[in-house]
Design brief:
CATH superfamily of chain A: Rieske [2Fe-2S] iron-sulphur domain
Strand order of the largest sheet of chain B: 5-2-1-9-21
Number of helices of chain A: 0
Largest sheet of chain A: 4 strands, antiparallel
CATH topology of the domain at 3-110 and 242-303 in chain B: FAD/NAD(P)-binding domain
Structural class of chain A: mainly beta
Helix content of chain A: under 10%
Strand order of the largest sheet of chain A: 2-3-4-8
CATH superfamily of the domain at 3-110 and 242-303 in chain B: FAD/NAD(P)-binding domain
CATH topology of chain A: Rieske Iron-sulfur Protein
Structural class of chain B: alpha/beta
Largest interface: A-B, 45 and 35 residues
Radius of gyration of chain B: 34 Å
CATH class of chain A: Mainly Beta
Number of domains of chain A: 1
Strand content of chain B: 15-25%
Number of helices of chain B: 26
Bound molecules: siroheme, flavin-adenine dinucleotide, iron/sulfur cluster, FE2/S2 (inorganic) cluster
CATH architecture of the domain at 3-110 and 242-303 in chain B: 3-Layer(bba) Sandwich
Number of strands of chain A: 10
Shape of chain B: elongated
Oligomer: heterodimer
Chain lengths: 110, 811
């Protein structure tokens, strides 16, 4: 189910915002080139909130112990191992939509 | 009998289609063209060189009046079509002609977008679309004076450069933070701004126009932030919208443009459309390449019965400003598995970025050397597999071996008067001439002759590089540890080069020092942000996104994602009112824990992020400000009871501590910075394991530096004894400033003092009172810019409110 969550300008360049969902928080990132990526807001290491990290290139550095997570794949870069769960994103004009992971349909869209 | 084809619009798309038809068959159609403009068909994109004076109108005419006559085309120039009747298959023009058609072609182009601000209709507000606009601008330019161009895209910049060439004083006002943001990335945008500024244009980014001011005619432009720019001419170049009014009145299907299928057919089977007025597969275009392709497809369809399809166009952009080489194509915003290759050559002002995905080029941005633009573009359109070229592709088609950045480039490019050694005021010219005149061949010899790098040694890397640049291969530079994987320069070199070259922004540093990534990493960005802030305290705009979360939102992140809040308690003193306010906040926000810290104040643990502004607002209301317990900044100034209460106290340590904290709070430093003041040598405030320690003695205050109680305990080194509180303040400020200017990011004072030596510190602070005063003054100037409570700005919601609210809550 694709859900509209806001526009590109709602997120600072090289920053992130959080979408709260029934399945947990989702971090939505914006790169310097205005690409948008989304993944569950939990570091594969010890669950750090990735939305709070420093975004650089197409990666985010976890705020707790500085693991680097690839925004495209959710994979941990460098010597450490693990993978954060990504969420599909579509951007049409300025509008961002996320393909919300299946939750029981609630009848409404949002 | 010939069929009747009527073309509405004597512009580039319409006439290109007619040319394509004639190429295939000169007899099939009896062609009539209506053009709103009172002139023959010309090359619209060349209006920019006409404006700048590099071309005349005659130079850019595509088809002369004779051409229309020779090809039996009836041209109604200066006569716009006012309606289409699809039932009778006729069109009617302004001059009252009614003509019938068998096939009708709409090529009405687009209209400049006018931003709906007050004053938009004043005399002297123009757009940039046709020859009449150019003539208006040239007329205005004759009178001289100032012009403002709204819009920093392709069109706006070409207008700005053209007006400048006509002697006007030009300011470009752009809504976004990067020029041509749809075609360029930040790095190329930075280079473009520098180039335009060096040509005397003024560029204002993130600038939103509020109103155009004037009585009857334009006098000035006002921005959102209150800035007023005087101007006798305002050019709006903020975008275009397809010109669809006629088609809409005729009942054709309209989206963003006139909707067409792959054969350029509108919703009416006898009416076709090409050019900027159309929408095809959801896309509209604002460049000529697509309309050439459309013209071909339509001509094929109208002349033969072959079915060819237009499948949309891939476009590239080039800025037509003489001497500025900019190229951009495709999408450089990647996606799954896209790979970024960056090349920078600071000496030549070159930046190239190629984005590859699945072994194919997906996009490219070139600045300063766009010669390979067409090569990349062709491979991109063809979907060429570039895996074999992968290693060298960014160097261009002619590349044959070698590669990588030149670590000496930045030093070679420095001006002769650029200061290399800040401690002793020695310039590049001084060092180079010493090397050549005295035949110097080593760092030590340069040190001995010039004194460069003889003090703190921070510039020794640069001196070595100057040796290498001057002596060539004879000199081998010691390899230094680079700041991070994005650069080959060390912390010291970067710091020195920032001041020597006068670099004032992060994109500038990354370009000039040839960073190998588009926007750095989590390790270099915070360091660069600090170095720039320290070098240009009153000018540099802090980049919040380059700060670690704690400094970005002014609280300490906890393992569970909540935050801790530590308000300042000046010199460790508090009051019933403060304690009451803290207790109230704890109750109101159900804060789970309160702890007395090792820094003599209270820590509120486990605050939800969304509650931070509320907590701060309540603490602010009781007069408390941020304690910066999270920052590479001044932390605490611990004090003991001192002369006010203690039977051994020799001076008022509490008062001294409060004064020190009031002077130094809010400063940013390479690493955290702590102080303490004890009232006597019993030293209950543990001053001798602080970054700056004060121990009161009978005759005054004993100052000591470089202590640390952390991972590796280090006792301070004695600096000197002073008599008055004012002297303590001056020494503390000067010492902090020396540390701020010299230490590497994330280097505490203890390792810094060990590295540069106590003698170096003493030489600056104790033995040279003039230097001490200057350092102290620089510290105070920077504090004036920094001492603002970060909590109060956020408590009121005026700053960074996006940090504390979710983007959206979904079920
Ligand atoms: C709250 C406090 C502990 C306490 O409850 O007493 C504390 C808490 C932390 N200290 Fe500390 N330090 C605290 C006083 C100290 C002291 C004692 C002092 O300041 O007198 C020291 C030793 C003195 C010194 O710094 O020289 C101290 C040496 C460290 C170090 C080691 C620094 C070093 O140079 O070796 C770190 C690690 C670092 O900074 O990289 C650290 C880091 C930390 C961090 C910020 C860890 C982190 O990065 O998240 C802790 C944050 C906890 C949290 O979640 O809020 N803390 N820390 C103290 C806050 C003082 C204040 O009011 O601001
Ligand atoms: C200053 C400038 C610089 C440019 N630089 C570049 C560049 O470097 N590269 C690039 O690819 N593109 C560039 N462009 C864009 C390019 O010029 C356009 O994409 C192209 O001209 C579009 O062709 P068109 O036929 O669709 O519209 P136009 O060329 O605008 O032609 C439409 C014509 O239809 C006429 N018309 C409208 N309504 C009616 C009516 N009812 N009756 C009769 N006539 C009517 C208009 O008067 C106009 O003459 C530039 C444009 C400008 C203005
Ligand atoms: S000593 Fe360690 S655990 Fe305790 S507050 Fe300091 S950093 Fe945290
Ligand atoms: S929780 Fe992310 S690095 Fe440890």
């Amino acid at each position: 189910m694709w859900t509209e969550i806001g526009t590109i300008n709602d997120i600072p360049k090289l920053g992130a915002r959080v979408v709260q969902s029934g399945r947990g928080d989702i971090a939505v990132f914006r790169t310097a080139d205005d690409e948008i990526f989304a993944m569950f807001d939990s570091c594969p290491h010890k669950g750090g909130a990735l939305s709070q990290g420093i975004v650089h290139g197409k990666a985010v550095a976890c705020p707790l112990h500085n693991w680097n997570i690839d925004l495209v794949s959710g994979d941990v870069k460098g010597p450490d191992n693990g993978c954060a769960r990504t969420v599909p994103v579509s951007v049409n004009g300025d509008v961002i939509r996320l393909q919300m992971p299946d939750v029981k349909a609630t009848g409404t869209d949002g | 009998m010939k069929k009747k084809l009527i073309v509405i619009g004597n512009g580039m798309a319409g006439m290109r289609t007619v040319e394509e038809i004639l190429k295939r068959d000169t007899d099939k159609y009896d062609i009539t063209v209506f053009g709103a403009e009172p002139r023959e068909n010309y090359n619209r994109i060349m209006l920019s060189p006409v404006l700048s004076g590099e071309k005349s109108f005659e130079d850019i005419i595509i088809n002369s009046r004779e051409w229309y006559a020779d090809n039996n085309i009836t041209l109604h120039a200066g006569d716009a079509v006012t309606s289409i009747d699809t039932d009778t298959k006729t069109v009617t023009s302004e001059n009252g002609y009614t003509h019938s058609y068998d096939k009708l072609l709409l090529a009405t182009g687009s209209k400049p977008f006018i931003i709906p601000v007050p004053g938009k209709d004043l005399d002297g507000v123009v757009t940039f679309r046709d020859l009449d606009d150019v003539n208006l601008m040239l007329e205005a330019a004759k009178k001289g004076g100032s012009a403002v161009v709204i819009g920093g895209g392709l069109l706006g910049l070409e207008a700005a450069v053209g007006l400048k060439a006509n002697g006007m004083d030009v300011t470009v006002v752009h809504l976004m933070d990067t020029l041509m943001e749809r075609q360029l990335d930040e790095a190329a945008g930075y280079l473009l701004v520098s180039e335009l500024e060096s040509r005397g244009l003024k560029v204002l980014t993130s600038a939103n126009t509020k109103a155009i001011l004037g009585e009857g005619k334009v006098e000035a432009l006002e921005l959102d932030d209150g800035t007023v720019i005087n101007a006798g001419l305002v050019v709006m170049a903020v975008g275009i919208k397809p010109n669809t009014a006629l088609a809409q009145d005729a009942g054709l299907e309209i989206g963003r443009g006139v909707k067409i299928d792959d054969q350029m057919k509108t919703s009416n089977p006898d009416i076709f459309a090409v050019g900027e007025c159309v929408e095809h597969r959801g896309m509209t275009y604002g460049l000529v390449a697509p309309l050439y392709e459309m013209g071909k497809v339509l001509a094929e369809h109208l002349v033969s019965s072959d079915v060819v399809a237009y499948e949309g166009s891939v476009t590239s952009t080039k800025l037509k400003v003489t001497g500025v080489d900019v190229f951009s194509a495709g999408d450089f915003s990647g996606g799954d598995g896209a790979e970024d290759i960056v090349f920078r050559d600071a000496t030549r002002g070159v930046y190239k970025r190629v984005v590859i995905r699945d072994n194919k080029i997906e996009g490219a941005v070139l600045y300063g050397d766009a010669a390979d633009g067409a090569w990349y573009f062709q491979m991109m359109k063809d979907g060429t597999d570039v895996s074999d070229l992968r290693e060298t592709i960014v160097f261009g088609q002619a590349y044959a071996g070698g590669g990588g950045g030149d670590p000496l480039a930045a030093v070679a490019a420095l001006a002769d008067d650029a200061e290399i050694c800040g401690c002793n005021g020695i310039s590049k010219g001084d060092i180079v001439s010493a090397i050549t005149e005295h035949g110097l061949t080593s760092l030590d010899e340069v040190k001995a002759v010039t004194k460069a790098s003889a003090s703190c040694g921070g510039c020794s890397g640069l001196v070595e590089q100057l040796l290498a640049v001057t002596l060539g291969d004879e000199y081998e530079v010691q390899t230094v540890k680079p700041m991070c994987g994005c650069t080959m320069h060390s912390h010291d070199d970067v710091r020195h080069l920032i001041t020597a070259k006068g670099m004032k922004s992060m994109p500038e540093v990354m370009q000039e020092l040839e960073w190998s990534t588009p926007n750095g990493c989590a390790s270099c960005r915070p360091a660069l942000n600090y170095y720039l802030l320290c070098a240009w305290p009153t000018e540099y705009k802090d980049d919040n996104q380059s700060r670690f979360i704690n400094e970005r939102i002014h609280a300490n992140i906890q393992k569970d994602g909540t935050f801790s809040v530590v308000p300042r308690m000046w010199g460790g003193m508090t009051s019933a009112d403060e304690l009451r306010a803290i207790a109230d906040v704890v109750d109101k926000y159900e804060i789970p824990a309160v702890k007395v810290t090792g820094g003599q104040r209270l820590d509120l643990f486990g605050v939800e992020k969304k509650d931070l502004p509320g907590v701060w607002a309540d603490l602010n209301a009781a007069g408390m400000v941020s304690g910066h317990a999270y920052g590479k900044s001044l932390r605490t100034v611990k004090t003991c009871a001192g002369q006010q209460w203690c039977r051994f106290g020799t001076q008022d340590s509490i008062d001294m501590g409060i004064k020190l904290e009031k002077m130094t709070w809010g400063s940013w430093t390479p690493h955290k910075f702590k102080m303490a003041v004890s009232g006597c040598p019993r030293n209950c405030a543990e001053a001798t394991i602080k970054d700056f320690g004060v121990v009161a003695v009978e005759s005054g205050y004993a100052l000591s530096v470089g202590g640390n109680g952390g991972i590796e305990v280090r006792v301070t080194d004695d600096l000197c004894i002073v008599e008055t509180e004012q002297e303590v303040l001056e020494y503390a400020g000067a010492y902090m400033q020396l540390y701020r200017e010299e230490a590497r990011y994330l280097e505490r004072t203890a390792p810094w003092v060990e590295r540069v030596g106590l003698d170096h510190i003493k030489a600056n602070l104790v033995e040279n009172p003039g230097m001490r005063k200057t350092l102290y003054e620089r510290f105070i100037v920077s504090q004036e810019a920094l001492q603002e409570d970060p909590w109060s700005e956020r408590a009121t919601g005026e700053k960074d409110s996006h940090e504390f609210t979710p983007l959206k809550i979904v079920a």
